[in-house]
Structures are given as structure tokens and as C-alpha cells.
Amino acid sequence: MIIDHSNARVLDVLENREKSTVLAYLWQAKQQGLLAEVVEVTTDMWQGYVQAAYEAFGEGVRVTIDRFHVMKNFQDHVNAARREIQRQLPREEAKALKGTRWLWLTNAENLTEQEQAELAVLQEQFPLLGRLRQQREELRRLFEDAAIHTAAAGVKHLRAWMGEARALGLQALDRFCQTLEHWLDKIANYFVNRASNGRAEGFNTGLRSILWRAFGMLNFAHFRLRVLDRFGVPT
Q1: Whether the predicted model's global pTM rises above the 0.90 cut
Q2: Left if phi > 0, otherwise alpha if psi is -120 to 50, otherwise beta: which for 98?
Q3: Helix or strand or coil: residue 58?
């Protein structure tokens, strides 16, 4: 799905996510003038999208890795790190953590007072898990820090965060830091304009609703036309 963030609309739905398909669309749309003035492209962490953007718009285009995809990837690694810690605990201690996954992976503002109190007790009881939770909150705060407004500053803060995360000595966090390092410059581009694919996720819900109402659609061309009719008009 190709989104026009400036006008809050779906430009098109492509039949697959192969680089050649994406590049062909971007190149044609640029030649026709629809995408002639593109200065920034937001995407997830897939090299095919990034390469297609550079080949279509040139090396001067700003490619930004969507922060929500970064956080989703991090959540998966936090959960793996939590299990890594639990495996190192004596069986009786590990039992105290049964059914607490929600507490470690949920934003503080979405926890009830009782859940926050329970989490505080667990963090006291299991200090390493508490530090893991703290690193999660620190990364969230970093992305929301309005004082960081350049890519260079973003790189500096993200590298400082990685140093603290790696100090926990958890393999899962180290793997996430390797991913972060690989995409670092494009993730840090987020701090320039705070561009994200949040709107795309909203449109994805709309696309799924079309499929639900139709009980599935086997004809891609018909599906594409329905999407453009519903979500292709500038707001």
C-alpha cells in the first residue's frame, strides 16, 4: 500500500511487496508527476523498500524507518529477554512470574493502579527484569523527546541507549541492538519531521474491513478499486 501522508489518502495498492513491483510503481508515478516532489519516504525495515525509494527518487531522498515498527521489533526482543531471564531463575522464583507478561510489555499509562503496584513489587523482587522494563521505557521516552530534532542528535541518543541496553548482558537485547545499529541512520531520520506510518496502520484496518464485509475477495483488481474508491480521495 502506497500512502500520501500530505493528503491523508491511499495512492495505490500493489499486488505484492517485491522490490521490482514497488520500484516500477514509484518510477512511473514520479514520471507522471504524482510523486515528482517527494522528499521523504517512511517504511518498515525491509531493504527492498529502501532500495526502491533510493532508485526512484535518488540518494537525496530522506528514508525514515517507522518508529512503531522499531518498537514492535523491540517488544518482541523484550519478551525474548524476559524469557531469557526467567530461564535462569530457580523454579520456585520463576513461578512468581507466571501470567505477568502483560505487565512487562504494557505502557505504564495503560496499567491500572493495582497492576502498577504489582509491577513495582515484581521489579523490586527481580532487579534485572526491572532494569529491562526501564530500558523499554527509556526507548519510548527517547522517541517522544521533542528536544531531539535532528538525525545526528537522534543517533547520539540511540547509541547511548544501546550502551545501557547491552550492559544488561542479555542476548535478546544484543540482537535488537544489532538491528538498531544496522538501520540507525534511517531510524534517526524520524527525529527530523517525526514522520511515521501510523496513518498507514489505520488504512490497513480499513482495508481489512473491506475484506471482512466481502467475506474475502479473490479478484485483486476489484479489491484495489474498492480501496481507492473508499480511501483514495484527499482529505
Answers
A1: no
A2: beta
A3: coil
User: What's the alpha-carbon Rg for the chain, to the nearest Å?
Assistant: 21
The helix-helix angle for 171-182 and 151-166 (nearest 10°) equals 160
In the chain, the amino acid numbered 39 is V
150, 223: one domain: no
The one-letter code for the residue type at 157 is H
Residues 23 and 95 in one domain: no
Please indicate, yes or no, if residue 190 is contained in any of the structural domains. no
In a domain, 143, yes or no: yes
What is the per-residue pLDDT across 180-224, written as a single tens digit (0 to 9) for each? Answer: 999 999 999 999 999 988 788 788 888 888 888 877 778 889 889
Helix (H, G, I), strand (E, B) or coil at 210: helix
The residue segments making up the domain with residue 227 are 2-66+196-231
Residue-wise over 157-191: b if at least 16 C-beta within 10 A, else e? bbeebbeebeebebebbeebbeebeebbebbbbbb
Is residue 189 assigned to a domain? no
